[in-house]
Amino acid sequence: MTTLRALALVCTLKPSPARSSSMLMARQVLDQLAENDVTGELIRVVDHDVRPGVETDMGAGDAWPDIRRKIAAADILLISTPTWLGHMSSVAQRVLERLDAALSDTDDEGRPAMFGKVAIAAVVGNEDGAHKIIADLLQGLNDVGFSIPAQGSTYWNGEAMKPVDYQDLDETPSAVASTNTTSARNAAHLARLLRAQGYPS
Questions:
Q1: Which domain does 52 fall in, by range?
Q2: What is the pLDDT of residues 47-57, one digit of tens each?
Q3: CATH code for position 172
């Protein structure tokens, strides 16, 4: 079986070494991807100076070009974000904005550079919003050229207005664990299909 590569962009607002529910969820999905012969790397985006803008490189000091190269080398992109006021984090929104530049990048056969890559999403929060965030994330990623597998997302919503975070749970809820497994398995399956036979040029 072909070994694939995954990159997880964790879009928590908390810089390292602070504990993060989004980080925990991303690690859990990467663990499930590993069960499907996918090697994974995790980047906490807020630890890097990713500048605002919609260009591939926003100038001296911009950390995005290095992250963009890692995306280019990966078969699967996971974006993990918390929920803030019912929306994805500003860090996740910035990632989408910076990926917009990929629309003008093409491969050797003239296809958009992200064709052939798979994207999945993970959302955590103790308020409503996960479904809308997933819809916004996956629509944006699909616009850029990523393919979305069946049930290509996972999430956890805690009870509204309660201070419990995902990372505070004694164990992963069975429904979340099952969804992590399905999302990872389907992402690996689709990525292998696309590796074997890409989209027409």
A1: 4-196
A2: 999 999 998 99
A3: 3.40.50.360
Dihedral pair phi/psi, residue 158, rounded to 5° = -80, 175
Question: The tokens 């992963």 sit on which residue?
Answer: 172
Q: Is 116 helix (H, G, I), strand (E, B) or coil?
A: coil
- Any residues with CB less than 8 A from the CB of 25 and at least 6 apart, and which? 80, 122, 123, 124, 154, 156, 166, 180
Q: Would the pTM count as exceeding 0.85?
A: yes
123 domain residue, yes or no: yes
Number of domains in the chain: 1
Rounded mean pLDDT of 168-176? 95
In a domain, 100, yes or no: yes
Residue type, 74: A
Instruction: Copy the structure tokens of residue 187.
Output: 């992402």
CA–CA dist 64, 99 (Å, integer): 10
Distance CA 91, CA 9 (A): 10
Residue with tokens 């994207």: 119
Distances 18 to 156, 160, 165 between C-alpha atoms, Å: 20, 23, 13
Establish if 201 belongs to a structural domain.
no
- Whether residue 97 is contained in a domain is answered as yes
Strand partners, 7: 41, 77
User: Is the pLDDT assigned to residue 2 strictly greater than 80?
Assistant: no
- Give me the helices (H) in the chain, please: 21-34, 64-73, 90-99, 130-144, 174-196
Residue 45: predicted pLDDT: 98
